[in-house]
Amino acid sequence: MLGHKDSSFRSSSATPSPPSSSAPSPAPIRRRDPRYAAVRRKVCFDAPSRTADKGRSDGVEIGRDERTTGIAGEDIPKSALKKKQDYGITDIECEPWVQCDRCDAWQHQICSLFNERKNKAKQSEYICPTCLLDGIGNGEQLLSQTTVIGAKDLPTTRLSDHVEEWLAQHLNKERQERARSLGKSFDEVPGAEDLFVRVVSSVKKTVEVKQLFRKNFQEQDYSSEFPYKSKAILLFQKIEGADVCLFAMYVQEFGSECPQPNTRRVSISYIDSVKYFRPDIKAASGESLRTFVYHHVLLGYLSYCKMCGFTSCYIWVCPPLKRDDYILYCHPEIQKMPKLDKLRQWYHAMIHKAKEEKIVVGCSNLYDDFFLPTKECNAKITATRLPYFDNDYWPEEAEVILQKFENESTTNRQKSSTRRALKAAKRDTTQATPGDQNDVLLMHELGQLIRPVKENFIMIHLQHFCSQCCEPILSGKDRHPIDSEEHSFYMVEVGKVPSNTDDKDRTMASDIFETRMAFLNFCQANHYEFGTLRRAKHSSLMVLYLLHTSKCNVCSSTIEPAEGFHCQTCPAYNVCDSCHQKEGVAPHDHRLILRSTICRFLSQSRLMKQKLHLLNMAKKLNLMLQKIEESE
């Protein structure tokens, strides 16, 4: 509800009206620290100030007796102080304000969805919602005609299109089932609308093998690094006219070109969400519709991975500690963080759906797949077979264990325990090298750590694995037992798995989304919180604005959304209007097009996809009707 025109603009980062009393030279209260507020006074201070020493520069002193606290020369009874604690910077008295240029009323910038970054020059006019409504009633055109660019206008990828289409199809099916169970028509039951899935970061990275692990296994041609593609995926929903980021996910994709043991493996590193999804109702299955949607975002992603030729997906189930954030900064107080067992159940419920959808062929855990010897598997039990993911549990623990081995001399190490470990691993105790000994002992100690909590390290199999060599079956025919009956097999034709896992999606670099910590730190530094719906709206607005803006490759100035020029061949090359107009200033080998043209093209292409989808549905319906008529 903002109007931007070329005019003078006034904003304030402090509370301008009404004036409030405060201690002189107040020190900032740290986030989440307890604070005390004086009843009927606009004064608050932190816990240490309540028992402050004399001579403090912020005006907080000990009162005339122990029952009072002195604030700027006034004694306030401690009984009149109310203890408060904010989850994030949510005190509305500390928020920045903006003044209407028509009625001079002050509004919170967050409530007004005001974009302070866009108004660096202080030359835009702000019109409050009341004046806008009055103007519309009088027939005035107060809002500018510029296109509002939101989540749906972000660039799409094959992955985002696949997940979004998957989600839409299953939501439509769920709504039909819910309507049928309630005895109502499709339109009579509420459904989830205005959902947009976007990949906001897709960059090539490398996880380097830690020093001691690399040193111990260098003779086995173990790779020193594993290349992968890191992706950040967001789910937005338009709520009350504003885009809100509801769900975020970071994944690691190790492709077909990556060395073993990471070849064709995927890791879901982090997921996070905030509880604002609409409508807040139960799905036909009995679970919340919110859970249904988040599960199907993951199912759509796993379906895409299977289609691209990935063979397995790894999930380390590890909920955040209380008050900690993984991706989104601050969560609603009413949103309960799941305990470990609940989160594990949540993932397994998703995996059960994936099996029903024929996406997943099996599910196990890291310990059973790589630590536990079986009669059928001929593969060697060794640390070099463990998938090596970035920021994972076992590589960190392995480095600690190997450091302990280095600190111990060979003579001090218990030979009997070494022999027992080698024998258990079916290694020749007489010809075992120091490297073999370290490998066996490392797997033994890692196994002791992982075995009690093995259910937290989920291995999802997207393709069948050979029971003999434990390698994925990528082509040909697969034979496996029926209902675990010994030596009873039936044949399964393995679908054609792509020889290359590259999905041809372009690289999408984003400074703020490069890692989950980069985004979290960015939100913390700018107070972009998701703890309340109004803050989530404003934070999402600012994130979308930054995703739509670019830096000029010539003068480094900020290019606003739908402004400037862009190279379709070089995705990272953008030029502002000023540099483009100056002859010879911005030479480039490829043709540059208007960024506004890209926005229009994206909108038109989405409409075209919708039309094609409707045409395909109509063709299928006509074919079905023809078959029915022929049968009659």
UniProtKB/TrEMBL annotation:
Tell whether Nucleus is among the UniProt keywords: yes
InterPro entries, per the entry: CBP_P300_HAT, Histone_AcTrfase_Rtt109/CBP, Znf_FYVE_PHD, Znf_PHD, Znf_PHD-finger, Znf_RING/FYVE/PHD, Znf_ZZ, Znf_ZZ_sf
Mention any Pfam family matching this sequence.
HAT_KAT11
Domain (CBP/p300-type HAT) ranges: 148-552
Keyword list, A-Z: Metal-binding, Nucleus, Transcription, Transcription regulation, Transferase, Zinc, Zinc-finger
Top-level EC class, please?
A: transferase
Report the EC code(s) recorded for this entry: 2.3.1.48
Q: Which GO terms describe its molecular function?
A: chromatin DNA binding; histone acetyltransferase activity; transcription coactivator activity; zinc ion binding
Report whether Cytoplasm shows up as a keyword of the record: no
Q: Which GO terms describe its biological process?
A: positive regulation of transcription by RNA polymerase II
Stretches with biased composition (Pro residues): 16-27
Q: What is this protein called?
A: histone acetyltransferase
Gene3D superfamilies attached here? 3.30.60.90, Zinc/RING finger domain, C3HC4 (zinc finger)
The region called Disordered is annotated at: 1-76, 408-436
Give GO cellular component annotations, separated by semicolons: histone acetyltransferase complex; nucleus; transcription regulator complex
Provide ranges: composition bias, Basic and acidic residues. Answer: 51-68
Localization per record: Nucleus
